[in-house]
Inverse folding.
């Protein structure tokens, strides 16, 4: 079974970012009109994540309405509904533009990151599309913890505190 690809409407930007964090191909742009969302979803075989009744009623596309408005609860719901737990590949997509990340040599990104970063790590990834650089910095452990809480909740376990 293929890993689902998503398209989030304008109201689900944070959800799109979290799906990308988990490694899922997720399109999101604030300027997409309903017609363009439908055309793109049909052309690319994407599941539209939306709370818009008009889009949900369009029988030409596969769409889903998250029950909650809370992005953390939405992620847990999607993990369950689409059986995504075993398909997670965290930290492999650009959070900004959705492109798969590539490893980058420290010297190649030295001019793009704060100097103090090199005292902490020499592991970097870079987005080949927008050029954004990622590394396991101060937010990394927090993001890993958030992912762990999502997975625990998905499994029905008591999540560990943040």
């Amino acid at each position: 079974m293929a890993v689902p690809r998503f398209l989030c409407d304008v109201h689900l930007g944070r959800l799109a970012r979290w799906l990308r964090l988990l490694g899922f191909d997720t399109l999101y742009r604030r300027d997409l009109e309903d017609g363009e969302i439908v055309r793109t979803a049909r052309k690319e075989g994407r599941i539209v994540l939306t709370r818009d009744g008009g889009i949900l009623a369009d029988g030409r596309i596969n769409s889903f309405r998250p029950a909650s408005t809370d992005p953390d609860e939405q992620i847990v719901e999607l993990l369950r509904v689409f059986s995504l737990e075993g398909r997670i590949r965290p930290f492999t997509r650009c959070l900004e533009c959705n492109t798969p990340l590539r490893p980058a040599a420290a010297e190649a990104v030295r001019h793009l990151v704060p100097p103090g970063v090199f005292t902490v790590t020499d592991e970097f990834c870079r987005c080949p599309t927008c050029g954004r650089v990622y590394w396991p910095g101060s937010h990394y452990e927090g993001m890993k913890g958030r992912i762990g809480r999502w997975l625990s909740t998905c499994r029905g376990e008591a999540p560990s505190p943040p």
